[in-house]
Amino acid sequence: MDLAIATTLTETTFDDAVARIREALAGQGFGVLTEIDVTATLKKKIDADIENYLILGACNPQLAHRALGVDRQIGLLLPCNVVVRDSTEQPGAVIVEAMNPDIMVQVADAPGLPDVAADAATRLRAAIDSL
């Protein structure tokens, strides 16, 4: 099982990739609840320099409600993290990747959860593919 649903964008900027994934997520019913600028945080806290690296905490309320209805502890795995980062291997490229919802199924083996994870995976894949 892959850890992420991902794509690499080669004809865009980091900021454009962030704007595009936000729009694509919204088109699939996801809102961004949290945003962690890992680059700025590491620079401020430990004076470490890394490439542009942003974590978006994406949530589709209907899917979250369904998942919580199956297992209240599933909140430990929510929201769905989406990472936008400059490639360290391919200069000028931006990687956009979302956590594979099937990981929830592997961690919490609850009846009904595979259906929610499959729906989330379909929506996240559609958002990533639209980029």
TrEMBL record:
Residues 36-101 form the DUF302 domain. It comes from the Bacteria. This is DUF302 domain-containing protein. SUPFAM superfamilies: TT1751-like (SSF103247). Pfam families: DUF302. InterPro entries: DUF302, TT1751-like_sf, UCP021774.
